[in-house]
Write a structure and sequence with these properties.
- The protein is α/β, with parallel strands linked by helices and 347 residues long.
- The chain folds into two domains: 203 residues, 3-Layer(aba) Sandwich (Rossmann fold), CATH 3.40.50.300; 118 residues, CobW-like, C-terminal domain (Hypothetical Protein Yjia, Chain: A,domain 2).
- Helix content is 27%, strand content 24%.
- The strands form two sheets. The chain has a nine-stranded mixed sheet, sandwiched between helices.
- α8 packs across α10.
- The longest helix is centred in the middle third of the chain and has 14 residues.
- It binds guanosine-5'-triphosphate (GTP).
- The site of guanosine-5'-triphosphate has 16 residues, from α1.
- InterPro entries: CobW-likC_sf, CobW-like_C, CobW/HypB/UreG_nucleotide-bd, P-loop_NTPase, Zinc-reg_GTPase_activator.
- Keywords: Chaperone, Hydrolase, Nucleotide-binding.
């Protein structure tokens, strides 16, 4: 299998909703992950705090290998290509979408990109809880932006009363049914919603970057989300699992891990990434010495964890009847060359 594709997370939202604040929060709490940042104006990204180590053209190199660049839509694919270059060592790319293009166009650009180094990592729409009602009156297109989002971050909760917050939340949920919603202030979302921490290798003294990272934990990562871990020793039924995936509960934002589909999967290990409506499988041999079993982490907000686990348990194969149709459905989402169909669900 080719090396892991780098997720590209899009952050959109109306003027002043808190996108840069959230981006800075993600940068400050990135848990060792190397983040590539694409903005159309990097004046306000907290570059100073990240120890700028050099500047090349429109790209700023941040501490610990993070990169920051400024582009317009036409330059985006090329810039993503640069950031995804293996030598850059980036784990995730965050694009501050507003001002670059319409969120829907950016999502299309991402999922249609034939850049082999990247994959779609979701669209987070930041909403200003204090200004939403007024802004929506002036900009009805905001409703479209919410509908295309994979995650709504209802920010500035500190600026409204509980009653006002509940009302805005209700309106957003009505406009974007089924889209997971997190209530935050100052963009304090847990980075693990978007990317995985990098396992740390430690040699000798703490670096400056380590020290700076530890400083920033005063602000709690309190935006409530749920995470469910599911493991199964028995293979899953491809058909039942696809049924689960295609009708997954509202609020489920991200699923990652791998599946054992038993003899149906010709004993391969099926890696799975979903974000919002985007689904992608990859296939590899089981690593030597690792048990064959399904291991999944499911992340979101506002779903019933016990019900989710029950629904996954109902996906166990139970017998070894061949399930060719189920496998064909899985293969539609397989991330292998010439598999243009896999993104059909989101596009
Ligand atoms: N009270 C409060 N202020 C916030 C919160 N989040 C952001 N702000 C402030 O709101 C202002 C706008 O935040 P930004 O992060 O710059 O918003 P943005 O969406 O990046 O703005 P543009 O790039 O201009 O569209 C800044 O002064 C932030 O400090 C919050 O949750 N509560």
């Amino acid at each position: 299998m080719a090396r892991q594709r780098i997720p590209v997370v899009l952050v959109a939202g109306f003027l002043g909703s808190g996108k840069t604040t959230m981006l800075n929060h993600l940068l400050a709490n990135r848990q060792g992950a190397r983040v590539g940042v694409v903005v159309n104006d990097f004046g306000r990204v907290n570059i100073d705090a990240l120890a700028v180590s050099g500047q090349v053209d429109t790209m700023v190199s941040l501490g610990n290998g993070c990169l920051c660049c400024a582009v317009d839509a036409s330059g985006l694919d090329a810039m993503l290509g640069k950031l995804a270059d293996a030598e850059a060592g980036i784990d995730v790319i965050v694009v501050e979408a507003s001002g670059i293009a319409e969120p829907r166009d950016l999502v299309r650009l991402m999922i249609a990109s034939d850049n082999p180094g990247i994959r779609y990592g979701g669209l987070a729409e930041v909403v200003d809880a204090a200004e939403f009602a007024a802004t929506r009156e002036r900009h009805p297109e905001l409703a479209d932006h919410l509908r295309v989002a994979d995650l709504v971050v209802l920010n500035k909760a500190d600026r409204v009363t509980a009653g006002e917050l509940a009302k805005t939340r209700g309106t957003v949920e009505e406009l974007a049914p089924g889209v997971p919603l997190l209530v935050t202030d100052h963009g304090c979302v847990d980075p693990e919603l978007f990317f995985d921490p990098r396992p740390r290798e430690r040699f000798g003294q703490l670096s400056f970057d380590d020290l700076r990272e530890h400083e920033d934990h005063s602000r709690h990562l309190h935006a409530a989300y749920e995470s469910v871990t599911f493991t199964a020793e028995q293979p899953l039924s491809p058909r039942r699992f696809l049924d689960f995936l295609e009708q997954r509960p509202a609020g489920l934002y991200r699923v990652k891990g791998h599946l054992d589909l038993g003899p149906n999967g010709i004993r391969s290990r099926f890696g799975l990434h979903t974000v919002g409506g985007f689904v992608e499988f990859d296939r590899s041999a089981w690593p030597a010495g690792r048990p064959r079993r399904t291991e999944l982490v499911l992340i979101g907000a506002g779903f019933d964890a016990a019900d989710l686990t029950r629904r996954l348990e109902a996906c166990l194969a139970g017998d070894s009847t061949p399930d060719e149709r189920g496998m064909l459905r899985i293969l539609r989402y397989l991330d292998e060359p010439d598999d243009g169909a896999r993104h059909a669900e989101q596009a």
